[in-house]
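Shipment paperwork, digital attachment
Item: protein structure file
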Amino acid sequence: MKILFITHYFYPDPNIFYGLPFAKELVKRGHQVEVLTSFPNYLDGERFGYKQKVLLKETIDGVKIFRVPLYPSHNESSVKRSLCYLTYAMSASIWGVWNVSKPDVVYLPHGPITSAFPGIFTRIFRGAPYVLNIQDIWPDSVESTGMLSNRFALNLLNSICKMAYSFADNIAVISPGAKNKLIERGVEPEKIELVYNWCDEVHFPSDTAYDFDLAEKLNVRGCFNVVYTGNLGPAQDMMTVLRAAEKIQSIVPEVRFILVGSGVEQSMLQKELELRNINNVILHDRVSLNHISNFLSLANLALVHLKDKPLFRITMPSKIQTYMSSGKAILAGISGDPSKLVADAGAGIGFEPGDSESLCKAVYEARSLGKNKLAEMGRNARAFYEQNMSFSHGVDTYLKIFEQIRRK
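Attachment content:
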C-alpha cells in the first residue's frame, strides 16, 4: 500500500505519536511511505541544520520525505503562529501534493487543522481517500488556551473544521467524548474510530528496576511515594497537591510527593513550599526522557491531575499512557473519559480534581491497600495498555482503517 503522511510537524521536530517511528514501522511491514511536511519549525530558533528551499527531498530509514517552505514560528504571537500554519498549508497544497507519488491512502496526523487543506486537495485532484487524526477539538482548544479569541476567526476556523470532517473518509479520535463531540457537530458516527495514543515505549518499559541510588539522593527510600512527571502550569493545578501535602505531612509523615517537571508555575510552587514550610514535597527540575522512568521506579502511585474543564473531560493526557506502560498504579485527579478509563481498567484510585481533601483521602486509601494491591493495579494498567494502547495495537488498527477506506 502507498501511504502518504501529510503533517505540519515531522522529524526532527517532536512528533511522538505519529511521526518517524510510525512511518518506519509501516515500511517494515512492507508498505511504501512518503511524508509531505515542512522544514523544522516547532522549536523557535532550532532548524537542525536545515535551510528552506522550494522543495527538499530526503530519505530516512526507508521513509521518503518531501519538505516544503513555510513562515517558521511557534511563539506566543497568534498572528505569527497562524501565518506558520497557513503558509505550510499553501505550500503543501499548491506545490507539495504534485511532487509526491500518487498514494492509495493519505494520513493526516495530529496538528493544526489547516493541514487538512493539502489532504483535501489530494483527495479531490489525485483521488486518494484520507484519514484525519484529531488530538484536540478545534476551535475549542485554541479558544480555551487563549491563542485565538476573535469571534470571526473562530467561526472561520469552525467552518474549516467542518469541511475537513466532511471530506475525510475516516476520523480517528483519542477518547469516547471526542467521538461524541464530533457526532454532535454532524459527523457520521460510522466514520469515526477510537484509537488511543501510544507512548514512547523504549523509554517507558514496565520492568524498570527500583532506582536505589536516586531514592537515596532524594531521601525517599522506604517512603510512600507519589510521583508526578510533566508540566507545572495552570491546567495541572499543583497547588491542590501542595495543600494536600501540607495536611498529610503531620498525619502520615512517610508520604512523599515527588513533582518532576517545569512550567510557568514552578517558581510560585517553590515559594509556596518555603512559605508554608512543606517538607514532604520534592520539586525537581525537568529531566530528559531517558531519566523519567528512574523517577517512576520510585512511585507507589503515579499522579495525574487536571482542572475540571469541559475540554479536559474528553482528552486523554499522555501521562495516562506513560504510567500504564510503566505498570504503575495511577492516582487520578481527572474527570470524564480519562477518569473512567483508569477506573474501568482497575488501574488506580480517583479523587476530585481541585479538591485537596479528596486527594488526601485517596492517598490514605491507597496506602491502606498495601503494596500487593497497588502492584496489582499496576499490572492491570500495563495489561490495559498492551491490549488497547500499545504501539503494535495502534499500528494494527490504523492499517485496518487504511485498508478499509482504500477498498471503498
